[in-house]
Structure formats: structure tokens, C-alpha cells
Here is the input.
Amino acid sequence: MAEKIRFIGRIQHTEDTIQRLFKTEYFTYSKRRILARMLVGAAMVVTGLLYQRNRIVQVILLMIGCWLLFSRDFPASVQADRTLEKRKGRLPQNTCTFFDSGMDLDGEGRMRLAYSRFQQLVEDERYLYLFLGKGSVCMIDKETIERGSVEELKEFVEKHTGLTWRAKSKSLLQMNLYDVWQMLQDKRRRR
Here is the structure.
């Protein structure tokens, strides 16, 4: 007897979805790296403002410091561009089929994923991201969900993974102490 399908969700990747995917992954798994870049950038700006001996060195410190402060997602954009270049327009379409015992991922192959393998659940206004780890994610367009609503799928996934959905990472300037605590807890869990 065939297992009952609970939900189905799809994504047809485009250049925009690939950019979003890499940026979401970067902000989910690289918060400490982003914070370090911002701190180095701030230190360079302060040093540039206080350094009065050589105008060229001062300008270089200010430019690099500002770039580090305001180009937080640059590494993710570069990685997405490389992926798009390698694929040369052949972007995948993936289908996620949810069962009580696991999720099937169909696209450039087929695999069954146990819910226990998922590490993080992230959502933004348009997509759901089910992370298996850094570099491995199932992305679903909310508009493609079949056999239930977005909220019903989210509840189903939470129940089966034991994880909770997080909103797409906020600006590091808006982080509170709980976010910092969660970042440290996530690092310990991955070890």
C-alpha cells in the first residue's frame, strides 16, 4: 500500500531564487563571520578617521572599512554568481513531497530525506528553506504548496523535525541578546 502524501511543494529556480538561496544560507550559517567583517570594517573606519599622517592611507582605510561594513552579503552574491555561471542557464526544478515517514526530493535525481536530518527551518515572505546543513537546502515556493496551506505545512514540518521556523535573518544591527545566544547554541549543536 502506497504511503499517503501529506503535502507537495515546488521550486523552479531562476537567477533570483539562486541569489536568495545563497544569501539566506549565508545569513543563516555565517552570522559570526558577518559580525567579524562588520567589526573589522568599523575598526578600519575609526582608524581611518583618526589616522592623520598620510592622506592616501587614510582614504584607503576608510574605503575598505566602509566596504566591509556595507557589503555584508558580498560573499553569498559571488558564490551565487559562480553557481549560475557553471549551470549556464540550466536551472533545476525541484519537488518536495512530504510523507509521515520522510520527505522525497525530486529534481536532478530522487532521494528520501529523514526529518531528523534537517538542521534549520527558515522562511521569508515568499519561500521556505529546509536546511540539511551548510550547502544543502530544500527550497519551496509558498505559492506552489498543494494539499494544504503554508501554515499547515509549517506545522507538519515542525512536528516531524522538532525544529521551529525562523524568519529570514535580520540585520545584525537589529540582533538582540537572544539571537546571539541562539547563534552560539547552533555552533555547539553542529560540533
